[in-house]
Write a structure and sequence with these properties.
Blueprint (H helix, E strand, L loop, with lengths): L8 E3 L2 E3 L2 H28 L1 H12 L1 H10 L2 H23 L5 H7 L13 H15 L9 H7 L6 H4 L12 H11 L14
Antiparallel strand pairs: 1-2
Helix pairs in contact: 1-2, 1-4, 2-4, 3-4, 3-6, 4-6
Amino acid sequence: MKMAHEPNFEILGAPIGDVIFCAQFLAQKRAKAVKLLSQLSGVGSLYPQIALLLLRQCASFCKLVHLARSTPPSLVSEGLALFDEEVRNYFSDCVAIDASDSDWLQVQLSLSRGGLGLRNLALHCSAAYLASIIKAGCADPRANCARLLSVSSRHASSWLAVIPSRGLNLSLEPEEFQVALRWWLGMNTSSQLRLEIG
């Protein structure tokens, strides 16, 4: 297992850390997704039907939905809204239709509801995040149930009972221990760490 020595890190494709780190992480993911949109732009002028299919199936909502599901909406909604705007611009370019705001609302509906299935990430991110927490076995997201289930599982607390030994590699640096304890207790792990050794 790779140990993170910084308060900001990535795990399973999701950013863990402060607001700035999460915004930068999302900006990098968004840049890659926008690059894909630009690579598809040539398809739209020749084959708008294929371009729309690729946009819906491969290059819009699905590119960043993992972040919407795994990161608190307060940290990603603005970046997701920027990507939604890029998708709208690409749609206009690829099918040569400049949709008004009311038309765009219909475009975002599912195919079965009369839309084109280009879902709005910023609009869905709160529900996606909540659904992810509930799916993890937590009916009340405010209680941080996923973390509580993890820390209460069998042998999860073994690291707290072990006698520290540098020779056996059974010890943590003070900063590492503080971050681990903060996570264990559900505290903010990205705040300034205080070392009071003496």
